[in-house]
């Protein structure tokens, strides 16, 4: 499954176009590597997503083409949520 679709179906990001933009801006990592919108995600992968001033890390638990709102949170496990500070140049 593509990362942009996973982010939308799991409701980590509400819209697929926003998930695509975030991925293409370099704010999503899979297992420590930059991920573009078309990057494939697998069960067990560790995703890190930068949301403004925080960075959220989750582990993929389930892949599903569609899901109900109540079941979306079962698609991932929250590992950590921490403040994000941009690296100084």
Explain what the structure shows.
The mean pLDDT is 90. Helix 1 (3-9) crosses helix 2. It contains 2 helices and 5 strands, in the order ααβββββ. The protein has 89 residues and is α+β, with helices and mostly antiparallel strands. A hairpin with a 2-residue loop joins strand 1 and strand 2. Helix content is 18%, strand content 29%. It has helices spanning 3-9, 16-24, and strands at residues 28-30, 33-34, 46-51, 54-60, 76-83. The chain has a 5-stranded antiparallel sheet with strand order 2-1-3-4-5. The protein is globular, with a radius of gyration of 12 Å. The longest helix has 9 residues, at 16-24.
Q: In brief, what are we looking at here?
A:
With 89 residues, the protein is of the alpha+beta class. Helix content is 18%, strand content 29%. It contains two helices and five strands.
């Amino acid at each position: 499954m593509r990362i942009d679709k996973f982010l939308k179906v799991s409701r980590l990001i509400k819209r697929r176009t926003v998930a695509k933009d975030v991925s293409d801006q370099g704010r999503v990592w899979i297992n420590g590597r930059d991920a573009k919108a078309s990057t494939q995600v697998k069960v067990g992968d560790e995703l890190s997503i930068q949301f403004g001033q925080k960075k959220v890390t989750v582990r993929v638990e389930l892949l599903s083409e569609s899901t109900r709102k109540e079941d979306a949170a079962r698609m991932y496990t929250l590992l950590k949520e921490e403040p994000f500070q941009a690296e100084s140049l």
